[in-house]
Amino acid sequence: MIKFRTGFVARLLALDLVFTLYVAPGIGSAAALAAAKGSGEAQPKVTLAVLPFDKTVEGGDETLGADMSAAVKSSLEATGKFYVVGFSERLPSIQRAISEGIISKKDIEGEFSTDKAIAARVGRAMGADAALVGSISQIKTDAQNGVAEVTVAVQLVEAQNGKLLNSIVLQGRNPTKPEGASEAELVSLAAGDAATKIATEVAKEDKLTLIAAKPAIFAPEKKKKSKGMKFLLLAILLGAGIALAGGGGGGNSGSDGDEQPPPGPY
């Protein structure tokens, strides 16, 4: 009876191994895929570096370029489609890149929109897939009517090779007219409207999705290695299970069907 149970347990172990290695992972993968689709994050996210916008025209505060890049960063984060990194020369990654000679202090002084190669190098130093640079090219104000308009030219640059992915020109206008607002305040509101529009346009860019998908090319090789290891473990453990089952069967050859309990004491 004990030998019979040993063989039976070995078979159960073998079946459990097959379930663990093949069936359960499949169920888990299907559940994970369904969860990813449900959450809207099936596609990998792109890391975007937002560099300070250049301001070459009169109007608004002197910090308008930096303020606008901060507003664009917040608007891009609100879309939920990107990992967004705002530029600062105090970032450890920037300081390390300078100390290693990857970029120079002159590179981070700007103007970023005039040199895609520098924008790409700084973006790479920040660990980004792409860099977003912009230039405030025109500012119009009508203080009497409480209206301001900001024209911005934006470029998306692939960090790996400096390739221009897209170029956008758009205008922002102040959505509200606060009573007694100064021209600088109206311009700031118009810049905020432009930042929202920039984020909306960038979120539509299909080329960014392709950049994020590039690392997935190496995934199949990892799966093959993992599957080979599973086959090896399966062969070893199945062999052990069959040996145990066979040994149990051989010991029962003279008593098959005889499962009577031992006689009680006389």
Quick structural overview:
The chain is of the alpha/beta class and 266 residues long. Helices cover 50% and strands 18% of the residues.
Kindly list the characteristics that best describe this protein.
single chain; 266 residues; alpha/beta; Rossmann fold; 2 domains; six-stranded mixed sheet; 6 strands
Please outline the helices and strands.
Layout: H1 2-39, E1 46-50, E2 54-55, H2 64-79, E3 82-86, H3 92-99, H4 116-125, E4 130-142, E5 147-158, E6 164-173, H5 183-203, H6 206-213, H7 219-251
Parallel strand pairs: 1-3, 1-4, 2-4
Antiparallel strand pairs: 4-5, 5-6
Shape: globular
**CATH overall fold name of the largest domain:** Rossmann fold
- Count the domains: 2
Q: What structural class do helix, strand and pairing data support?
A: alpha/beta
The number of distinct β-strands equals: 6
Strand residues, percent: 15-25%
- The CATH superfamily of the largest domain appears as ABC-type transport auxiliary lipoprotein component
Residue share in helix: 40-55%
Query: What is the CA-atom radius of gyration, in angstroms?
Result: 32 Å
| N-to-C series of helices and strands | HEEHEHHEEEHHH
- If helices are DSSP runs of H or I spanning 4 or more residues, what is the number of helices? 7
Poorly predicted sequence stretches spanning 5 or more consecutive residues = 17-41, 215-226, 248-259
Q: Write down the CATH class of the largest domain.
A: Alpha Beta
Please describe the biggest sheet, giving its number of strands, its sense, and whether it closes into a barrel: 6 strands, mixed
